[in-house]
From TrEMBL:
It holds the Pfam family CFAP298. Belongs to the CFAP298 family. One of its GO terms (biological process) is regulation of cilium movement. Signal peptide: none annotated. This is Cilia and flagella associated protein 298. It comes from the Eukaryota. InterPro entries: CFAP298.
Length: 245
């Protein structure tokens, strides 16, 4: 099996094993799938940290409003009244006005925090240093653990507009966000190795040879970015006769 050290830019992401005979069409999609799933887990546990501190998401029409404005407009958090954490809530105001302030008690808060740390460990970039290869099964395990913790603490579920629930239901809207820019669609992903694009129409062995013990560093990038890089490399070579390293 060829060992791929996947990076985004210069930042290590994870290790992945693949046969040299792998079709790059499928391998590229596989790398993008794992990469995006790890991003999803990171988005979820980031929101779960806020859930543990400040309770569920407020309705969109109540977010950012003061108590006086909410009272004046006669707005009501109906889902917040249904979505009560196990063991009752402890009020802890969300100063930025995204969540309703009805936080879980300390015991339930620790359930969330402990699970987050366990999920982080599963898909940590430190797994690269430990020479542990990442799989979709591992990422799904982390996601399942996060989902399980939310179900324990909030047995009645979360509001349909809470970003945690939306992520678990694959209904998240990342348009216009930095998180959205980080996602690379499987159909638009490209892998690069040694300043070469690993073209989807070929096999991995077309680039690395038949040695199944090869280890390579590949960079996952968005197709539009890669296209611009290719143009820059061509432009530089055309005018100077030198390749970019």
């Amino acid at each position: 099996m060829v060992l791929l050290h996947v990076k985004r830019g210069d930042e290590s992401q994870f290790l992945l094993q693949a046969p040299g005979s792998s079709e790059l069409e499928e391998l590229t999609a596989q790398v993008a799938r794992v990469y995006n799933a790890r991003l999803k887990a990171q988005r979820i546990w980031s929101e779960m940290e806020e859930l543990a501190e400040h309770g569920v998401f407020l309705p969109p029409n109540m977010q950012g409003l003061t108590d006086e404005q909410i009272e004046e407009l006669k707005l009501k958090d109906e889902w917040g009244e249904k979505c009560i954490p196990s063991g009752g809530s402890v009020f802890k105001k969300d100063d930025i006005g995204r969540r309703n302030g009805q936080a879980p008690n300390e015991k339930m808060k620790q359930v969330i925090k402990k699970t987050i740390e366990e999920a982080k460990a599963i898909i940590s970039k430190k797994q690269v240093e430990a020479n542990v290869c990442m799989t979709m099964e591992m990422v799904n395990d982390a996601l399942d653990q996060l989902r399980g913790a939310v179900m324990i603490v909030y047995p009645m579920g979360l509001p349909p507009y809470d970003p945690i629930r939306m992520e678990f239901e694959n209904k998240e809207d990342l348009s216009g966000t930095q998180a959205g820019l980080n996602v690379i669609k499987e159909s638009e992903a490209q892998l690069w190795w040694a300043a070469k694009e690993l073209r989807r129409t070929k096999k991995l062995s077309d680039y690395v040879g038949k040695n199944e013990k090869t280890k390579i560093i590949v960079k996952i990038q968005h197709v539009s970015f890669d296209f611009n890089v290719s143009r820059l490399v061509f432009f530089t070579y055309f005018h100077t006769g030198k390749n970019l390293q």
